[in-house]
Amino acid sequence: MSSSASSSKGKRKLNAVKKLSVLIVANDDISQNSYILCLQKFGVETLGVKNGFMAFNIHDKTQMRFDLILMGSTMPIMDGIEATKKLRSMGITTMIVGITTPDDNEEYRKKIMEVGLDECYEKPLTKDILQSLVEKISNKV
């Protein structure tokens, strides 16, 4: 076996080992915990925060980056619209998926999409939706 063949095999192994990471931004503990548990079953590393300000600070103050951000809509301190705007203005290109509530009207959903979401779903996110999102980001990594 040539050294280039063994080197490319090693690279493939390294790429296969990289775990996907998801930031879950939601002030609803029950939803956040259920998303974390489900994503961890798919082998994804997760971090949950309570509001958009915390999500912004993680990106602004640390070198942490995520493969996917699940962004709640209504949260204290900084909501999903403001947090998404700030993240996009920082140059964050990570896939951001909005999670709206049944009470959010169509105008709000349109506004949140316009600030830079890639997709938007009404909560609760199902296992199938989460699995689909993980598959999408897996193909990009």
Automatic annotation (TrEMBL):
It comes from the Eukaryota. Coiled coil: none annotated. Residues 21-138 form the Response regulatory domain. Pfam families: Response_reg. GO terms for biological process: phosphorelay signal transduction system. This is Two-component response regulator ARR22.
